[in-house]
Design brief:
6 helices, two-stranded antiparallel sheet, binds iron/sulfur cluster
C-alpha cells in the first residue's frame, strides 16, 4: 500500500478512535461483535482497511467463514492494532447506537473521498469476501505476506 495513502487512512482511524473514546461507550467484552452470524451482523470493510489489516494480521484459519472473525481467539482480538473501522466503532451499548451510525457514516465518507482523491476505485465487502479474495489473489497463505473490517451491519 502506498505509504502516503496508508497514512491518510490511519488518520481516519485516529479520528474515529478519538470520537469513540469521547463518547465512552460501554464494552461488556462479550465477543459478540466478532461472532457475526450468531449475533446477526456482517462486518463490511473497504479495500483500504483490508490491506492494512493484512499487512500485520497474524496467521488465521482459511478459508474464512462468514460466521465469525478468524482473528478472534479465546474471546480476544489478535489483530487489534490494524482492526478495521467497524471493529473500532461497533459496541453493544444501546446508548451508543446513534453516535455509532454517525461516526461510521462520517468515516466511510472520508475513506471514499480518499479513494476519489487517489483514484483507487472503491471496493467494499464483507470480511470473509475480502480475506478469501486476498488469499486467491496470492495463491498462497497471506498471513505472512506484506500485502493487502468496516463496518458491522445488522442483517
Ligand atoms: S478484527 Fe474485528 S471482528 Fe476480528 S477479532 Fe478483531 S475486533 Fe473482532
Amino acid at each position: 500500500m502506498d505509504p502516503e495513502l496508508r497514512t491518510r487512512v490511519l488518520e481516519v482511524y485516529a479520528e474515529v478512535d478519538a470520537a469513540v473514546a469521547a463518547a465512552k461507550p460501554r464494552c461488556d467484552a462479550s465477543g459478540r461483535c466478532c461472532r457475526f452470524t450468531e449475533y446477526g451482523h456482517t462486518l463490511f470493510l473497504s479495500q483500504f482497511e483490508a490491506d492494512i489489516l493484512l499487512e500485520t494480521a497474524p496467521a488465521y484459519s482459511k478459508p474464512v467463514s462468514r460466521d465469525f472473525c478468524p482473528f478472534q481467539v479465546q474471546g480476544l482480538c489478535t489483530a487489534r492494532e490494524s482492526r478495521p473501522l467497524g471493529c473500532r466503532i461497533y459496541f453493544c451499548d444501546p446508548t451508543f447506537q446513534e453516535p455509532q451510525h454517525a461516526i461510521t457514516e462520517a468515516a466511510v465518507a472520508k475513506l471514499k473521498a480518499i479513494a476519489d482523491e487517489y483514484d483507487t476505485g472503491w471496493n467494499y465487502a464483507p470480511l470473509h469476501t475480502m480475506l478469501n479474495a486476498a488469499e486467491r489473489a496470492v495463491g498462497a497463505p497471506v498471513s505472512n505476506a506484506r500485502m493487502p473490517l468496516s463496518v458491522l451491519t445488522d442483517v
